[in-house]
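ok here's the first one, seq then struct tokens
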Amino acid sequence: MDDGMKRELAQFLCAAKIQEPRTKSQHNREQWRQSLLRRLDPLWDIREKIDKYVAENGARCLICGSSSIEGNAVEIDCGQALQNISCLDCHSSWTDVYVLSNADEIDVPSDVASG
């Protein structure tokens, strides 16, 4: 589990007010773990869908898999860009996050380059 997923899990647990029981009973701890896993299933499911969506370069809806998706204007700010995306079939929506990874085709005027 990478650091990002650990942060997401911690935020989820905090938001859901899930705390490990204080009891020492192994049975109660196992019940707690099973309850936690049931609550986390939707989180892991959406994480897997997001990972697949990113691996496929955002070509299909991350919920239903349809190729009928559209994006609004891209908003750019400080090394990242955001774009609201929606699926025309299942009507889900989400925000794509683009991160600056490189600069290319750099054109430097000769008077700047020489001095």
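and now the second one, same deal
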Amino acid sequence: MPITVAFTAASIYAVAITRGIKLEERIRQYSRGASDPNILLMIWIFVLAGAFATGAKSMGAIDATVNLILSLLPLLAPPPRTLHRGVLHLPLHRHECRHGHRPRTHRPRAR
């Protein structure tokens, strides 16, 4: 559904649910509220964000960024070192995982 259809439906609903006031006054209240600077700024941010997202998607920037990150991820993240009870744990410190278990490949130095 295009944004204009959703905006029109929401506007009609907002005017329609106000009871006990004449239609002319309801429309006047809606217009005063919609012209508030904060509301207008929020609408502009929404419209410009949608335009940016559409432009980025149409020129392939999203796919290019995802492919770049996926190609760099193996270089940035070290491989995990341990399997504990069939669950893969990434160690927080050199010789421990987040549960305090030591990997099986670790042998403490003799003192």
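notes on #2: The longest strand covers residues 82-84. The helical segments are 3-16, 23-34, 37-58, 61-76.
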